[in-house]
Amino acid sequence: MTHSDALANTALIFEGGGMRASFTSAVVARLIAEGIDFPWVGGISAGASCTANYLSRDAGRARESFVDLAADPRFGSWRTWMQGKGRFHAEYIYEQTGLPGEALPYDWDAYRAHPAQFAVGAVQAETGRMVYWGRDDVHDLHDLMVRVRASSTLPVWMPPATIDGHVYFDGALGPTGGFALDAAKAAGFERFVVVLTRPRNYVKPLGGSVTSAGMRALFRRYPAIADAVIKRPLRYNRTRAELFDLERSGRAYLFCPEGLTVSNSETDVRKLRHMYELGSAQIERELPALREFLELPAR
Fold first, then answer.
1. What is the DSSP code string of 157-203?
2. Pairwise CA distance, residues 251 & 242, whole Å
């Protein structure tokens, strides 16, 4: 493992973005290969999966989660969506694949041995409240994976997850728009490495094809979720602006993908493999700068 005072005071944050994480999961794999253990890691949506994979120190699973798994016929389709299981078959992806003998067995012992604290977040449907879970909330593999699922539950696309009697949707609907920056700050961190899934010049459009009235009709059962969907572009852009301010002040290192061309719903394995290869090449180029930010010796 590699250590420094700077690393010991830096939080690692993974943005979501669905299958765009085929690009940034290469960062997870490289951090594992380099033995870079952050003291705290947080993620929302696909970033929650990246967080779980980082904590298990399983570089192969990091890749397969957003590349090869898409070829699994149980991964999801419009048929599973019509069956009420989701366009992405959430229960299978998050709660079944990690079991022993399944498609992506999760190394529970490695997770328990990892020293990092963590946070994965989702939005409570009834109240719109952002909820973060960490080690104290996780006692077995199901506890972890159902929370990763909750964090990743895209409204309409996937059925909501229920935990302790409460319904949850994607954490990207929370106050930061999809970054666990607030949780990292609450944990006492002032330095951050943030792995984004949008290019450096990206700005989320403020308008959409669905009106506010249409959104409220669509989520009439959960008006707080309708409000969160409507507010998300403003929240997302505001947090990104804060991240770039932190970068300019020397308090953040931002990994922004270059050449990313897939959407959050891409399932073409050839395209996903290409994105992973591009991500691997980019983190290879950026690794010296990242090590310098973390005050780790050059290699």
1. TSPPEEETTEEEEEGGGSTTSS-THHHHHHTT--EEEEE-SS-TT--
2. 11
Helix (H, G, I), strand (E, B) or coil at 3: coil
Instruction: Give the SS3 label for residue 81.
Output: helix
Residue whose pair of structure tokens reads 């308008």 in the numeric block:
207
3-state DSSP assignment of residue 269: helix
Residue range 17-57, pLDDT digits in tens: 999 999 999 999 999 999 999 999 999 999 999 999 999 99
Question: How many other C-beta atoms can be found within 10 angstroms of the C-beta atom of residue 33?
Answer: 11
Angle, helices 59-66/21-34, rounded to nearest 10 degrees: 180
Q: How far apart are the first and last CA of the chain?
A: 14
Helices (H), the chain: 5-8, 21-34, 46-55, 59-66, 78-82, 90, 108-113, 141-151, 181-186, 212-218, 223-248, 269-293
Vertex 128, ends 39 and 146: CA angle to 5°? 55
Contact at 8 Å (CB) between 7 and 38? Answer: yes
Burial environment of residue 184 by CB neighbours within 10 A (0 to 12, 13 to 18, 19 or more):
buried
Handedness of CA 257, 260, 263, 268 (dihedral sign): negative
Q: Residue 79 pLDDT > 90, yes or no?
A: no
Mode of pairing for the β-strands spanning 10-14 and 130-133 = unpaired
Q: Mind listing the pLDDT tens digit for each residue in 245-266?
A: 999 999 999 999 999 999 999 9
- Integer angstrom CA distances of residue 152 from 5, 7, 99, 206, 231: 33, 28, 19, 22, 18
> Does the reported pTM lie above 0.85?
yes
What pLDDT, in 10s, does the model give residues 211-220?
Answer: 677 778 778 8
Give the span between the Cα atoms of 187 and 277, in whole angstroms: 34
